[in-house]
Amino acid sequence: MRFCSSPAGGGKHNSGLPVNTENEEEEEDKLVEYFRAQIRGDPDVASAVAAIRSLLEFLRRDQSETILGLRENMTQAIRRLEETDSSVAVSSGGELFLRFISLTSLEHPVRQHCTQSSCSARAQPSIASLLADLSQCKNVMIERGELFLKKISLSRGKVGKLCHTFIKDGAKILTHSSSRVVLKVLENAAADNKRFTVYVTESQPDSAGKRMAQKLRKLNIPVMVVLDAAVGYIMEKVDLVIVGAEGVVESGGVINKIGTYQMAVCSKAHNKPFYVVAESFKFVRLYPLNQQDVPDRFKYTADILKTVKDLNQEHPMIDYTPPSLITLLFTDLGVLTPSAVSDELIKLYL
Amino acid sequence: MPGADKETDLSERIESFLSELKRCGSGAGSLRGSAETARETTALLRRITAQARWGNAGELMEIIRKEGRRMTAAQPSETTVGNMIRRVLKIIREEYARSRGSSEETDQQESLHKLLTSGGSSEDNFRQHFTHLKANVIEAINELLTELEGTTDNISMQALEHIHSNEVIMTIGRSRTVEAFLKDAARKRKFHVIVAECAPFCQGHEMATSLCKEDIETTVIPDAAIFAVMSRVNKVIIGTQTVLANGGLRAVNGTHTLALAAKHHSTPLIVCAPMFKLSPQVPDTPYNHTKLKSVDTILYIHILSKVNAHCPVFDYVPPELITLFISNIGGNAPSYIYRLMSELYHPEDHEL
């Protein structure tokens, strides 16, 4: 068996920054291609799920021989994916996957090859058994990764089932932009033979609201598209507001398409319940205190980040809604109050 | 045969409990107050565990769930019945996990962490048989019963921390927990109590008479005067029928008005509620789940032929209006209720 003596994960400069060898570049290009193919093939899939699937594929193909090397490769790959799709969901999915690798490797420790002369020759594990350890660890990771993927593909269904009981007959619902989770919730409610009307905001600059309206019309749900500026006007007519989320932050607030914060403030002023529906893999370890605190890499699309010099001239695509404006969060872990979200995150990361 | 006798005896008791529940809605049954209902339910569940025929934990849980569904259907507004059933189901799960020797009894909840680290063996159908499971479960239910008996005392013990001399306290209707709370404080402090009478059944009158017997200065006011008097009140202390999962309340009608008046005057609103009143229900719409009482006790009988009269029994109070919950395990903020709930009930039991 050939023993590769170079440290896995690309050659390291003396400064400590990893530099990609050509092999790594190729691997990462393939990864990005795989990711894009996932999204093209199934437009309904959540971007975090597609990211995790691609990372699992990357894990299968990875050739590193130590856990550290594996982690470094993964971190590089995640950074590359974030450059392709700068949404919060991809970032949270990537961080979750990295956490998953750490947790699994802690449970199935790989013995280290001891190079110090103080170790006795007998105590040193043979190279073959080290590699066997690593491949066993990787097999466990891949198996668990598949299980994890299967579970999170079901999360949207779970959220839909939880939330649709909150929609009463004759309700008027306001939603923002296009969210696949909200669509699933409304689908479930319609399948339950409930009659309700939906108002969707147009959601400029990409008019995502009009796409949402088309999808709702296909489900025979009466829908009306309103201007973003008309949220205050329409708020007195609606009974409840349901929005999706790109990311749920530690404080219990959400990051979502620009215009969500406005809608939340209006609904608070009119005393209407403001519900957020999100899957649990969107929980992210950020704690913004105001709009400026949200990192720039999430606010703008990946292309703008690469090409534009002065970001102050650009319009952000997302905003942050603080937890005080949110009534309840519907996730696949159950119905949570905003204060319960940080509990969940602590359970995971501590 | 002794076996068949036990079974018929058991089903007789269950039937009589169900008819008690149905009658207690109209005030005619002998079960008064949620504490008694909770105790009776737990005692009945202990009897079911002891006498019904079951081979493993899964079968026992099925039996309890089935009986539980019938009990909650008999009197849906009496949520303590459902709460006790969920507590017992959680006890069974814990004892089963302990018998199996697994150390994950603390982490029964769904969480992100569990999603990531489970190796696919999380489907636990409780099919294994353990000889000591019955004894363990019955012992745990006995502990639960002891806890239930001590709840009112535990709450009253905290009274002195919250009530100070020469304070004016407002309450509404009649709550046994608040009564005991105030009486305990009255042994050492002198304060005034204003009771809103809570029409149309005017239970506030009984509360006032009972407090007077302990030499507490009491004033009775009509419900319409709540806002007017609120500026002179230092604290509002109320009881409730149910505490909901989001920290809100389902309490006697008039409580929402009281809570809004208190918020307007920035008066703290304290809710005395024992843990068995905590229910995993979430209010789907704040104005929708009304139970109506019959109106023949109301005085305007002569116009009933011409108008519709509605008399809702309960009010929903949203969590933003509540300052503190005092329960038998101490004081908590409304935003912490979700945590207490996750310790009491297993998420799969939220729907019986």
Automatic annotation (TrEMBL), chain A:
Region (Disordered): 1-28
Superkingdom, taxonomy of origin: Eukaryota
Cited Pfam families: IF-2B
InterPro entries (alphabetical): eIF2B_alpha/beta/delta, elF-2B_alpha_N, IF-2B-related, IF_2B-like_C, NagB/RpiA_transferase-like
Keywords of this entry: Cytoplasm, Initiation factor, Protein biosynthesis
Annotated GO MF terms: guanyl-nucleotide exchange factor activity; translation initiation factor activity
UniProt subcellular location: Cytoplasm, Cytosol
GO cellular component: cytosol; eukaryotic translation initiation factor 2B complex
Family: Belongs to the eIF-2B alpha/beta/delta subunits family.
Entry function: Acts as a component of the translation initiation factor 2B (eIF2B) complex, which catalyzes the exchange of GDP for GTP on eukaryotic initiation factor 2 (eIF2) gamma subunit. Its guanine nucleotide exchange factor activity is repressed when bound to eIF2 complex phosphorylated on the alpha subunit, thereby limiting the amount of methionyl-initiator methionine tRNA available to the ribosome and consequently global translation is repressed.
Quaternary structure and partners: Component of the translation initiation factor 2B (eIF2B) complex which is a heterodecamer of two sets of five different subunits: alpha, beta, gamma, delta and epsilon. Subunits alpha, beta and delta comprise a regulatory subcomplex and subunits epsilon and gamma comprise a catalytic subcomplex. Within the complex, the hexameric regulatory complex resides at the center, with the two heterodimeric catalytic subcomplexes bound on opposite sides.
Name recorded for this polypeptide: Translation initiation factor eIF2B subunit alpha
Organism: Cyprinus carpio (Common carp)
UniProtKB/TrEMBL annotation, chain B:
Annotated compartments: Cytoplasm, Cytosol
Ranges that cross the membrane: none
GO molecular function, one term: translation initiation factor activity
Keywords: Cytoplasm, Initiation factor, Protein biosynthesis
Pfam annotation, one family: IF-2B
GO cellular component: cytosol; eukaryotic translation initiation factor 2B complex
GO biological process, one term: animal organ development
Main localization (coarse): cytoplasm
InterPro entries: eIF2B_beta_subunit, IF-2B-related, IF_2B-like_C, NagB/RpiA_transferase-like
Family (UniProt): Belongs to the eIF-2B alpha/beta/delta subunits family.
Function: Acts as a component of the translation initiation factor 2B (eIF2B) complex, which catalyzes the exchange of GDP for GTP on eukaryotic initiation factor 2 (eIF2) gamma subunit. Its guanine nucleotide exchange factor activity is repressed when bound to eIF2 complex phosphorylated on the alpha subunit, thereby limiting the amount of methionyl-initiator methionine tRNA available to the ribosome and consequently global translation is repressed.
Subunit structure: Component of the translation initiation factor 2B (eIF2B) complex which is a heterodecamer of two sets of five different subunits: alpha, beta, gamma, delta and epsilon. Subunits alpha, beta and delta comprise a regulatory subcomplex and subunits epsilon and gamma comprise a catalytic subcomplex. Within the complex, the hexameric regulatory complex resides at the center, with the two heterodimeric catalytic subcomplexes bound on opposite sides.
Protein name listed in UniProt: Translation initiation factor eIF2B subunit beta
Biological source species: Cyprinus carpio
